[in-house]
Specification:
This protein has helices at residues 9-12, 29-32, 35-38, 55-66; strands at 42-48, 70-76. It is α+β, with helices and mostly antiparallel strands. Strand 1, helix 4 (55-66) and strand 2 (70-76) form a beta-alpha-beta unit. The N and C termini lie close together (8 Å).
Amino acid sequence: MNVRLVFHLPDSLPENLQNRWSFRSLRQVDELVSEVLFALQGLILGIPWRHRMEPEVVSAVVDCVRGGGRLLLLGFDSTLQR
C-alpha cells in the first residue's frame, strides 16, 4: 500500500471541492498530544489490529473530538502480505 495516495486526494476531487481539503502526516506521538492536534479540523487515524495507543494519546483524541474535531478511525490487519 502506498501511504502517499491519500495525500493526492485533494487533486482528485471534483473541481468545486478542490482547495478545500488539506492533508498532512503526523508521525510523532508528540504531535498527537499537543496543540497541533487541536489546530486540525479533523483526523484520519489508522491503527493496526491489536495495537494499542498510549492513554495520553487516547485522551487527547477524545478531547479533540469532544471539542468539535472530526475523527475517521481506520483499523487494518498489519500481518497481510504485501
